[in-house]
Hints:
Elements: E1 2-6, H1 10-21, E2 25-30, H2 32-35, E3 42-46, E4 51-55, E5 58-61, E6 71-76, H3 83-89, E7 94-102, H4 109-116, E8 122-127, E9 131-135, E10 138-141, E11 147-150, H5 158-165, E12 172-175, H6 178-189, H7 191-198, H8 202-206, H9 209-228, H10 244-248, H11 252-258, H12 272-278, H13 289-298, H14 304-317, H15 327-336
Helix pairs in contact: 6-9, 7-12, 7-14, 9-13, 9-15, 13-14
Amino acid sequence: MQHLVFGAGLIGGYLGAAIAANGQKVCLIGRASVLDKWQQGIRLTDYQGNQSGPVTPELLSKERLNEAPKGDILWLTVKCIAIEQAIRDMAPLIKADTRIFCCQNGLGAESLVQQAYPDNPVHRAVVGFNVTEETDATLHCGSEGCLTLERLHADDPVPTLVNTLSSPLLRMEYSSAMTELQWAKLQLNLGNAVNALADIPVKSMLRQRAYRKVLALLMDELLGVAKAKGLRLPKLTALPAAWIPWVLRLPDWLFERLANTMLAIDPKVRTSMWWDLHLKRKTEIAFLNGAVVEEALSLGLGCAANQVIHQLIREVEQGIRQPGMQAGELLRRVTTGPL
C-alpha cells in the first residue's frame, strides 16, 4: 500500500519512518525546512531502547504536491489549527478509496475532514506517545503509549492494518469507542499547557506538587464534563482516569513511590505546546483546554481552572507574558479564577 503522511513533523515523521521500516511504501509531505534534515534517512529510537534506521521514505515538500502519488492511506498529522488549509491542499492526493486517518489532539478535526471528503472512510486516530528530535536525523519516542485507530464497523479492515503495521517502535491498537478515547487522551493532554507555562521538562514538572495540583484541577473539570455527557473514559495509563487527579495531589515523596509509570519518561521530554511557544507558533490551546471550557459552559458547568490556563497561553502567544511561571504562582492564578 502507498502511505502518505501529510504534515510530517515530529509525530508524522516518526509515524512514517516506523511504517517504512516495516516494509511499506511511504511518502512524507511537509515543510522543506523539516524534510531537508531527513535527506539521508531518519533514525528512530525509543525510551525502551528499541531503534531502527536510517530509514529512507520518499520526501516531498508541500510546494511539490503535484509530484506526490495518490495514497491508499493518508495519515493527516497537521495540528488542529492547520486542518482547514490541509483539507484543501491534500485534495490532489485523495483517490475514491483513500482511507484517511486524522491524528490530531483535541476534538472535532475528523468531522471537518469527513465533510470535505464524504465518500472516503475517515477515521480518528489517537497518538498516545511523545516524540522529540534528538538530532536532525533522529526522532525519539520518549514515553509509553500506542497509536489507536478507529474501527468504523464490523467489516472494517483496520484490525488487519494494525496487525500489519505494528512493531516494537510503533505499538498499535484499534477501538470502536473513539469518543471516549479522545476524551481520555484530552485529559492527559491538559498537561501540555501547564508544561508550556512552566518552561521545564515534563518529568521535572511532575516532581513538583503545586504543578501537579494545577493539573489535577484541570482534570477535575474535564471529568465533570465527561460525567455530564455520560462518557466512561477508558484507562490509558496504569491508573483509571478518575484516579489520576487524586494521585497527582499526593505529597511528593508518596507520589514518587506510587506513580512510577507517570515518571517513566525521558528527563528531557517537553510537550508539543512547549515547542509551539518556543518556536513562536500559534498553539492548539483552543482545541485542548479551550474545548473543555466550551463543553463545560454549554452544560452549565464551572470551568475556572481551564479558563485561566487558556487565558495565560493566549497571553504568551501575544507577547504579553513570558513562559517560566513558578509552580506556586501558577497554582495561585488557577485557584483565584479568570480575571
